[in-house]
């Protein structure tokens, strides 16, 4: 009994002391993202304040309501106002999201991979209510409309893969009508911009009538005009040889792929000789009874007198002319005791070219 009354006395004494000293509370501490109501510079003991979090923030921990105590010291405030978090939006199919956090009031931005476009806006903000605004976009595939077909062309390979349209990187291949030549790439590709790469052109091409070669002939289609891909066939008379391909074609530049001519064969001034022809020893007089054709090549044997050995030198028939190597010595058929150069042992290779 005595003790309880003494507590009461103590308490009364305390109250009196405060009332006498007039202890007031100061302006309360500022708390990030919170507001205090009422906000004043001085509070009488017993006055109440309420902290509330600003829009976009939620309270966590501690108390929100405080009464100014007789001590004049606001109690320690452990309240925290933390930002609201918007739904996870870190992934965008066929695209990318740039963000720091998904908290209020941050903004995140979007981009799409090549071949996709943003259907929606390129950024969104986390609102006070914890929602993205405007809503998160999607990356939609880019499509190309059916390609226009160049004049004098047909569409070869083409398969729209998105309904009537094509997707990024799809291709279409054109062909020119017969006798039209293609300029540019026959293949077009659907780009990330939703258009096709540059179309090729098909142009009509004419070639002049080929002229008949001297000592030969040329055949070509009996037509009014000769066009792209038309062919002409060349040939030569008797001992003449065609220099160039037998068949030529009208190319897309309006020219023939080649202009063959007829080249004369060679008469041989040498009566008898053993020569190398295509890797074999042959008798010139037998092998080339009717002369050598243009372009044919033989190797004559020559003697190195000091070293008593033999070496070879080449000779080629070029349009009726063959130059017999100077080192070659033709024996009279009566000089049967002389050894033919082709029967002499060959010189060391590095001596061959000396004469
Ligand atoms: C494709 O085009 C045809 C003819 O224009 C049309 O009838 C059809 O509805 C189109 N299809 C799609 C999937 O757009
Ligand atoms: C033609 O285009 C295709 C695809 O666009 C490409 O792969 C090819 O290299 C091109 N050809 C030429 C000759 O430019
Ligand atoms: C396709 O579109 C892009 C962007 O608009 C443009 O730069 C390009 O020249 C276009 N390509 C063709 C072949 O028209
Ligand atoms: C056609 O060929 C001739 C000779 O080969 C050449 O001079 C001419 O420039 C060529 N013309 C074209 C269009 O290529």
Automatic annotation (TrEMBL):
The gene is APOH. It comes from Erinaceus europaeus (Western European hedgehog). Residues 23-83, 84-141, 142-204, 205-264 form the Sushi domain. Pfam families: Sushi, Sushi_2. This is Beta-2-glycoprotein 1. Binds to various kinds of negatively charged substances such as heparin, phospholipids, and dextran sulfate. May prevent activation of the intrinsic blood coagulation cascade by binding to phospholipids on the surface of damaged cells. Keywords: Disulfide bond, Glycoprotein, Heparin-binding, Repeat, Secreted, Signal, Sushi. The keyword Secreted applies. InterPro entries: Compl-Cell_Adhes-Reg (IPR050350), Sushi/SCR/CCP_sf (IPR035976), Sushi_2 (IPR015104), Sushi_SCR_CCP_dom (IPR000436).
